[in-house]
Amino acid sequence: MPLQKLSALIDAICNFVICNDSSLRSQPIIFNPDFFVEKLRHEKPEVFTQLVVSNITRLIDLPGAELAQLMGEEDPKLPGANSTASGFFRSLMSLKRKEKGVVFGSPLTEEGIAQVSQLIDYLHKNLRAEGLFRVPGNSIRQQILKDALNSGTDIDLDSGEFHSNDVATLLKMFLGELPEPLLTHKHFHAHLKIADLTLFDEKGNKTSTPDKERQIEALQLLFLILPAPNRSLLKLLLDLLYQTAKKQDKNKMSAHNLALMFAPHILWPRNVTANDLQENITKLNNGVTFMIKHSQKLFKAPAYIRECARLHYLGSRAHTSKDDLDLLTSPSSKELQPLKSQKRSRLDTCHQEETQQRTEEALKELFRHVHNMPDSAKKKKLIRQFNKHPTALTPGPDVPTSPAPRRTRSRSFSGLIKRKVLGTPVILERKSRDATPEPERVSKENVHLLQKCGSPAHMSQAKLKSLEGRKEESCRRMRAHLLSKDSSSL
Questions:
Q1: What's the distance, CA 460 to chain centroid?
Q2: Count of CB atoms situated within 10 Å of the CB of 311
Q3: Has residue 14 got a pLDDT over 50?
Q4: How far apart are CA 410 and CA 468, in angstroms?
Q5: What contacts 24+ positions apart, CB below 8 Å, involve 257-260?
Q6: Do 253 and 329 contact (CB within 8 A), yes or no?
Q7: What are 198's strand-pairing partners?
């Protein structure tokens, strides 16, 4: 094993053992906050859907038919579906979707997203083009690019052959030719209800001011139950539009202008016209504008959904709504907190003991391997590496080790001089308010001797012995003087 790798392994194991302490749990840990949410969605989709939909109905009012459509139990009833009139525009769109390719016109898949992501990556680098997504590109170049994407080949968009307007128009074309909008048909009525969420006044009456917090929370929940490919592409698309709107001083495309371009492709039902939507067009356009402006918040699960998913996998009772979690903070529930903390501490202690035991076994084996190495400079260096972490070393009984000697701490005057000579920092005791200085430390004789000592570099063992001898001789003289005074007085 190379010296550097072995040294790094020793450091890693020792640091793991040292840091495996309950006092360090407050340190930040790299962890995906939506881990249990994603786990629950993939392993138990029905439980996850019921959990999310129950919280959606807490925010918006969905009648029985619309709720069944959102759950996928009934086919969506969309505006214009029962109309007998079939205009030229509707027939043209239906004919376009019959010409299905590998990517364009096919149901959304991860492979199709991988191809279209080339267009999104290119547009991120060309956001300053004026009229982006509004100015159409060249139809011939767009057809060449479309054929290349359908064939599944990688395209070098940075070669200069294509313009940013060609790529932007082709991205809209791809979204428009999907069999259903990116936000799906069954979510259509829910988006209309989210657009109607407004604040209430002091008397409980609805106002015309949108309730942004509730709208964000409802969209977070709604996006959680989107199909995985739709959610992935929607996140890429809204992030692109958000970055485009930030450059509106260059490209002249605000969030509202971008919503007008993309609402028909990602939210409007297929095979409908503007006349079918009527007054809902404004709601849908404003809804897409809101998504673009707040896109950085919409793909995070609400805190109570994270907690419900976490409790589901930890064996506790899964709370089904935000109101259940609010009950945990009530005064009556605070009495249960000490019991819960004690149980949690016992579980953590058992887990720590198991981890410590496994780590000690690995550390013993590693230490035994180093000890059996032939004497060399490498072995000495590795042993010094172990000695840097004495608290983490737990070698077996068959490995001879010498315990590190502990230096006893002396508070005498001679010990003070020794610590000054050896260069060890002297730790002063805490001073109390009414404490008087010790006579031995502040006496003139001791101060005089310390001044004579000078720096530790010029002191020798002979001088140290002479100073100690002088101290003892002065003490004997003082005792003899006191005895002579007592005898004379008697």
A1: 59
A2: 15
A3: no
A4: 15
A5: 257/134, 258/133, 258/288, 258/289, 258/292, 259/285, 259/286, 259/288, 259/289, 259/291, 259/292, 260/285
A6: no
A7: 210
